[in-house]
Amino acid sequence: MSEDAADVQRVLSGDVDAYAKLVDRYYDRCARFAIRMLGNRDDAEDALQATFLRAYRALGRYQERDRFSAWLYRILVNQCRSIAARRSHRDRVFVREEALLLNAPDKRPTWTGEDEEFVQRVLNELDPLLREAFLLKYVEELSYEEMSALTGAGVSALKMRVKRACDRLRERWERIRDD
Amino acid sequence: MTDPEMDSYVEWIAREARRPVAVDPMAVQRVMAAVRAEAKPRRRGATWRWFLEPRPLSLSPAVGTALAAGLVGIGAFFGILRTDRGGQLDPTGRIEFVADSQPPFSDSVRTITFVLVAPHAATVSVVGDFNNWDAKATPMTRTPTGGRWSVNVPLRAGRHVYAFVLNGANGIQWVADPAAPLAPEDGLGAPNSVVLVGGSAS
Fold this sequence. Notes:
By secondary structure, chain A is an all-alpha fold.
């Protein structure tokens, strides 16, 4: 039995503290996905709280034959989608403001300096579906089959999303380089 | 890196995005505080397993007959409660829809029958907030003669968001129920449907 499965068993036997071990084990990785996906820490923390709470409530339905991390990620991806939808109006405003900033002359020849902020800004520019596919593929380093199980989208659709995301990133790079 | 999509710039973005993020050290404690306020989770089917476990039971013939009569009554009650919900992807564009109108069930749980007509699908399942969007959790069963898929799902009263996951020639597709109201756009292009259990959908 894996360490995760053993902790799940302990939680289901009434040991709530065993759940803290699962949260500790996966919080940072889930936080990285949520922050990169949602673009800000407040929304990400809401998504993470909801994810771990929903996973706890649903723990009795977790099947040991599935990897706990994949099961948790499926909940996380859906929570990020829900939060993105709930805050879509605010996001639209955010994206518009962001677009104004991005259209302003950017004379920095390279991305030296505030790398994390720059990377987040570039990721925020991507359509959410493309961003989700790019993050799952190249940041979480999942296979297309695993991504398909998480998102419900087909492998060919996901490959297309990743390709389009890479194309957008390349175009962004060419814009900077040509400035 | 051998991936054709990766060049040095894309690779750099991915590498930077893979860096760990700074996490509020209190965040895990906030999660656990919320968790401790919850009821303890129960293993799925624990109650049913107790009922299903074989155990010796001795009954007098009169009690056995009375119990048998009672079980027939319960079976009929469940039969009355089962109600179709769902629609079909009709080539004419006409959508067949059987309204949701179940009488109440114990503890405001009702059995909802999800139905989808998808003759070319190899497998179909229903995913929703009630099964954590797990495409393996609730597979639908195909009727022997046609392309009609269905599954019965006990749902608590309230609003539930769901979709169907079809696996066919075009790979896995995520589709909304053509016979039900759509959930508000989630901003990610994945259409979902809404079922209101215990009231009419709007």
